[in-house]
Amino acid sequence: MKFFETLSEIKIGSISLSSILSALIVFMVCCIVIRILKKALSRMLDRSHIDPSLKSFLGSVLAAALWVVAVIIIADSLGIPVTSLVAVLSVAGLALSLAIQGLLTNLFSGVTVLITRPFVVGDFVDIGGNTGTVRSIGLFYTVLCTVDNRLIHVPNGDVTSAKLVNYSTEPLRRVDIAITASYDCSTESVRSSLLEAAANTEKALAEPAPFAAITSYGASSIEYTFRVWCKTADYWDVYFALNANIRSSFDAHGVQMTYDHLNIHIVEK
Predict the structure, then answer these.
(1) 29-35 long-range CB contacts below 8 Å, 24 or more apart?
(2) Tens-place pLDDT, residues 211-225
(3) What is the DSSP letter of 232?
């Protein structure tokens, strides 16, 4: 007891030597606890199979939060007014969050994307009008590679707020083509020509069956809707092949493709 009383009488400024020793003990205990909690979180995240970048971010956030708590506990053991320290940290945190508000929006949006996984690397998506293959998903930006080989860095805040279309999630995709034909051509001849074009397209699927029907009657032509199913990976091959085959099939069966025009009839009296 006399030893601890002697230590309490030895002071460095307003802090006694016994307070410093107790703070060191608290520091070591905090180090052990932080290490245990980080390992527990790491094991839990490994079982969840989430993105590696999100694992690293969550680990860093946990470590930072635990060290803030540790600093407050150590300061209290040294006799430093904790209330003032918490107030200073709160004000500093508020000022920092206001200064980097845009970054925080992208950060939390990135965490949302990594957790909910509306798409993964390799998917072909449309994000607010930006279309391309997902190259990478970061905490702040999602990188798309367009069909003409341009990289688009989309802020994750825009990813979560914009309309998102993922073309890669389903195994099959439907090709829709609007085609016009002359009023002089019978409906059956147009339909049979379209179905023949589908049959001549190598990667078009027979099931679900191709579909062709009248959509509307225009001023100069009849509009038909032509629908063909294919594998998602074959979409563009089928799309371009169908357009070429439709033209060939129409020519073979004498079906006329029309355009907007005006017929003038002169009547003699």
Answers:
(1) 30/66, 30/67, 30/70, 30/73, 30/74, 33/66, 34/63, 34/66, 34/67, 34/70
(2) 999 999 988 899 999
(3) G
